[in-house]
Amino acid sequence: xxxxxxxxxxxxxxxxxxxxxxxxxxxxxxxxxxxxxxxxxxxxxxxxxxxxxxxxxxxxxxxxxxxxxxxxxxxxxxxxxxxxxxxxxxxxxxxxxxxxxxxxxxxxxxxxxxxxxxxxxxxxxxxxxxxxxxxxxxxxxxxxxxxxxxxxxxxxxxxxxxxxxxxxxxxxxxxxxxxxxxxxxxxxxxxxxxxxxxxxxxxxxxxxxxxxxxxxxxxxxxxxxxxxxxxxxxxxxxxxxxxxxxxxxxxxxxxxxxxxxxxxxxxxxxxxxxxxxxxxxxxxxxxxxxxxxxxxxxxxxxxxxxxxxxxxxxxxx
Length: 317
What we know:
This protein is of the alpha+beta class. It is built from 10 helices and 9 strands.
């Protein structure tokens, strides 16, 4: 979450006229995250989140995200529920950009990560994978290998001294991933963004998963790999094997990984590292000066990538 599109009270009041959710009391921008503009909106009825879609979200994909959250909410999965306006629409326009209102989830992200948190993250991820087996809509992963390469080619011509050291490492890794990426693993709906900012806890108990705007169809184990990179390395980018084992145990308490998934796990972890490294690099190089958000450091994921290049994760199963 972040704020790229500042809005005024007048802007918001015009939008809320289309909803039956009470009168506006206050609103405030949410500065965490990096992709879309988000505001917490408080009305006389309840709290809500307003999302204004920015750079990486295409309009044609928004109904998929909306319907996925509706599907999960109907199954009591703890995620934001889309709010319909008085005409029954979930998607509207604000500042000439598409926007949605969703329910507000209580809880907050954790800063001191424990094995218990990681166990619950694994359980939640498995639950999402299982509860979407009967979700019939499909969306290709718009942030797959081809896009990693395209984004990096864009960045390559703008690298400065802060990031030039990444050039040979990323180029070699992209070749490796092209030659070793699996073709046939268990697939389904993945969240693809289970970062610490997007998982809420209340008194250390999971209370909600947010930000489904990278969700798509892909390898289930790739979703786990993204989560491991986000949750199982400490502030010095050192791997925490106990957190990792807790996350895997949580996941496998509901869905067992196949032998093929285990076989390719190191490759998936390397791909998950490159995906975040490259998009963070892009956001550093092409940061909007008027955006109320600080881009994250790609060097964090360079360190994670280097770790995965040296380790065969098969030994941890």
